[in-house]
Amino acid sequence: MQKAFNSIYFQVTILILSFAALYHHTFLAMAIDWVNDDNYSHGFLVPAIAAYMIWQRRDKLKALDPHTSYWGLVIMLTGIFFFIVGNIGSELFTMRLSIIIVIFGLSILLFGIPLGWQIAVPIFYLIFMIPLPAIIWNQVAFPLQLFAAKLSAGVISALGIPVLRNGNILELSNTTLEVVDACSGLRSLTSLLALSGAFAYIASLNKSNKCILFFSAVPIAISVNILRLSITAITAKYIGPETAQGFLHDFSGLLIFMTAILLLFLVYKFLSKLENKNTVSHIDAK
User: Is the CA virtual torsion 197, 116, 10, 27 positive or negative?
Assistant: First the structure.
């Protein structure tokens, strides 16, 4: 009986049940946000992607010798402290962030520091499933709206279409387009960063190129958003204002995001080819 109580499986079961009891309300509220908030509809995919990232390193993890490290308990208690503070202040982001800290602490407590560090990136990748506080989101989204409107107006004007920009409003001869929060590009940026983070992690690149691949999502997301706004204005001018809304508008968003994924893949292919070329050059030099 004592052996059963000391078995790793029993300990893991108890810890998982305790974790579920502590965080089930937090997870439920976050899942509701994923359903209702289009900016974080990708949240459902993030845990599955994180699990795949860990599975992808299974051979390295098998080679490690798991052992208990009580440093993990310190990290867990820190995460629980964040949860209590967030709960007292009704601050959802802090409560949700504590989930990641507690999971990281659990991994070190059960399996040791070496194994915990091996899966640290997939664990902290879960940050992409946590919606940002509205005050932070708005502070970033509105400047992006103005930036997107300004660059789009420049592109539209360069194409010979008269346009007057007033803040985040684009006035054409036959219609007025508003660059709203959803058109700021922040939504596609958060989704593309989540995708590029996973892609960079599993890609066969060195660390420097992995970082370049990850951060390339920023200019790609901004560029394709400018492209979408410009195409919307052009179609509204020459086809009709109705193209700026409804199915065509939503479909263009999907098409542009697929374009962003393609560009991300092309960046990967370029970095991969460049890395292979440098490796061959280095071998030839020897």
Answer: negative
What φ, ψ does residue 112 adopt, rounded to 5°? 100, 165
- Six-digit token pair at 226? 């400018």
Q: Kindly state the average pLDDT of the residues 93-99.
A: 92
CA distance 160 to 252: 22
Q: Provide the token pair at 45.
A: 């995919």
**Of 106, 28, 117, 35, whose CA–CA distance to 72 is shortest?**
106
CB 232 within 8 A of CB 246: no
Selection from 1, 26, 6, 118 nearest residue 63 by Cα: 118
d(CA 103, CA 180): 37
Query: 222-237: per-residue pLDDT in tens?
Result: 888 888 888 888 887 7
Q: Please state the pTM of the whole predicted model.
A: 0.81
